[in-house]
C-alpha cells in the first residue's frame, strides 16, 4: 500500500496542475504524503530490515537455536498488524489525516483540520507500532548479549549481529520519547490539554524537539542494519574479514551516539539561537568522519581482491551502487548540515 501511494504521488507530480487527484479532493495528496511516510518507515523498512532480517539471520550468525523470547516476537508481529489497521482506519475515518508524517501541531491538534479522529487513529497506530518495535529490540538485545555460542565474545561476533545490537539500543533509547510525545499530542487532541497550543502558553517548537530527538536516530535505525547486511555480503563474497573490522564497530557506535545528538539540524529555520545552530552544524558534520571510515573500509576490502573487480556477481554490482549512492547522499548531507546554507536551501528541490 505504501508503494501504491508513492506511485500516486509521482503521477501527481510529473507535471504541473492536477493530474489524477481531483481539484475537489486536494486534501488527499496531503493524506498520501502522510501515509506514505508512515507506511514505508514503520511498516516496511523497520519490520522488514530490522525485524525480518534480524529474526532470521541474527541467531544463525551467532549460533543460537532461537531468539530468547520467541512468543514475545510473535506478539510483536501480531500487534504490528493491529497498528497497520489503525493507520488504514485513519484513511477512511472523516476526511483522513493530512498533517504530513511529522504530525506537527497546531495543525495536527486543531479541530480546524476537520479530522481529529483520523489523527487520533494515526497516533494510536504509531503507539502500538512503537510497542512492537520495543519488544523486538529487547529481544535482540538479550539474544545477542546472552545467547551467543560460548566461543563468541563481543569482540569476535560478526558485524551483522553487532549492527543489530546497536540498532536495538537506539530504538530502546528513542522510541519511548516518541511514545511520550504522541501521548501528549493525544491529550491536546482529545483531553483539552495545551502542551503544544501557542495561544494558551503551549509550545509547538517543543513538539519539534521531542519528535526529531526520535526522528534523527530513526534515520540511523533504518541504515545501520543495512550497513551490517552490506558488510556481511561483501565479506561473504570475497571470503575475507572486512578491512579494519574493529574500526567498523567503533564507527557504527560513534554514528549511533552522535546521531542521537544532532536532532536540531531538522529545525534550523524555527529560530534557534546562533550558538545552538553552530553546535548542531559542528556535530552533524562530525558524523561524516565515522561514515567515511565505513565507506573506505568497504572499498579497501573490495579492492583487496582484484579478481572480483569485474562486475560478474549481481551482489557486487549492488554493493558498488550502494557505495556510490550513499556517498552522493552523504555529501549533500554535509552541505545541508551547515545552518547558514540550510536557511537558503530550505524548502527547495535541493532538499527533496
Automatic annotation (TrEMBL):
**Domain Cytochrome oxidase subunit I profile per the UniProt entry, residue ranges:** 1-352
The protein's location, in the record's own words, is:
Membrane; Mitochondrion inner membrane
Gene Ontology BP annotations: electron transport coupled proton transport; mitochondrial electron transport, cytochrome c to oxygen
Entry's transmembrane regions? 33-58, 78-103, 123-147, 159-186, 219-242, 249-266, 278-303, 315-336
Q: How does it sit in the membrane?
A: Multi-pass membrane protein
Q: Which UniProt keywords apply?
A: Copper, Electron transport, Heme, Iron, Membrane, Metal-binding, Mitochondrion, Mitochondrion inner membrane, Respiratory chain, Transmembrane, Transmembrane helix, Transport
Molecular function, one GO term: heme binding
- Metabolic or biological pathway: Energy metabolism; oxidative phosphorylation
Q: Which family does it belong to?
A: Belongs to the heme-copper respiratory oxidase family.
Name this protein carries in UniProt: Cytochrome c oxidase subunit 1
Amino acid at each position: 500500500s505504501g508503494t501504491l501511494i508513492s506511485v500516486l504521488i509521482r503521477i501527481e507530480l510529473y507535471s504541473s496542475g492536477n493530474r489524477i487527484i481531483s481539484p475537489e479532493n486536494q486534501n488527499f495528496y496531503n493524506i498520501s504524503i502522510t501515509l506514505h511516510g508512515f507506511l514505508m518507515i514503520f511498516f516496511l523498512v523497520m519490520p522488514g530490515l530490522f525485524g525480518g532480517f534480524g529474526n532470521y539471520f541474527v541467531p544463525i550468525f551467532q549460533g543460537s537455536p532461537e531468539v530468547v523470547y520467541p512468543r514475545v516476537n510473535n506478539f510483536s508481529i501480531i500487534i504490528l498488524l493491529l497498528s497497520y489497521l489503525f493507520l488504514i482506519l485513519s484513511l477512511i475515518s472523516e476526511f483522513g489525516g493530512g498533517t504530513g508524517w511529522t504530525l506537527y501541531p497546531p495543525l495536527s491538534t486543531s479541530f480546524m483540520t476537520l479530522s481529529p479522529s483520523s489523527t487520533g487513529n494515526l497516533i494510536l497506530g504509531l503507539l502500538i507500532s512503537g510497542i512492537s518495535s520495543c519488544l523486538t529490540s529487547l529481544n535482540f538485545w538479550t539474544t545477542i548479549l546472552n545467547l551467543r555460542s560460548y566461543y563468541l565474545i563481543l569482540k569476535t561476533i560478526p558485524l551483522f549481529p553487532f549492527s543489530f545490537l546497536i540498532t536495538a539500543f537506539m530504538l530502546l533509547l528513542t522510541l519511548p520519547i516518541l511514545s511520550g510525545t504522541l501521548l501528549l499530542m493525544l491529550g491536546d487532541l482529545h483531553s483539552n490539554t495545551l502542551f503544544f497550543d501557542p495561544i494558551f502558553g503551549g509550545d509547538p517548537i517543543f513538539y519539534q524537539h521531542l519528535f526529531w530527538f526520535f526522528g534523527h536516530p530513526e534515520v540511523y535505525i533504518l541504515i545501520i542494519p543495512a550497513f551490517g547486511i552490506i558488510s556481511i555480503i561483501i565479506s561473504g563474497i570475497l571470503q575475507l574479514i572486512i578491512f579494519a573490522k574493529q574500526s567498523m564497530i567503533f564507527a557504527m557506535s560513534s554514528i549511533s551516539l552522535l546521531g542521537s545528538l544532532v536532532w536540531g539540524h531538522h529545525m534550523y529555520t524555527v529560530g534557534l539561537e546562533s550558538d545552538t545552530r553552530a553546535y548542531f552544524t559542528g556535530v552533524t558534520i562530525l558524523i561524516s568522519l565515522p561514515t567515511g571510515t565505513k565507506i573506505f573500509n568497504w572499498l579497501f576490502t573490495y579492492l583487496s581482491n582484484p579478481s572480483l573487480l569485474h562486475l560478474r556477481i549481481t551482489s557486487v554490482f549492488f554493493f558498488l551502487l550502494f557505495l556510490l549512492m550513499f556517498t552522493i547522499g552523504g555529501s549533500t548531507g554535509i552541505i545541508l548540515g551547515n545552518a547558514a546554507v540550510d536557511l537558503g536551501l530550505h524548502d527547495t528541490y535541493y532538499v527533496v
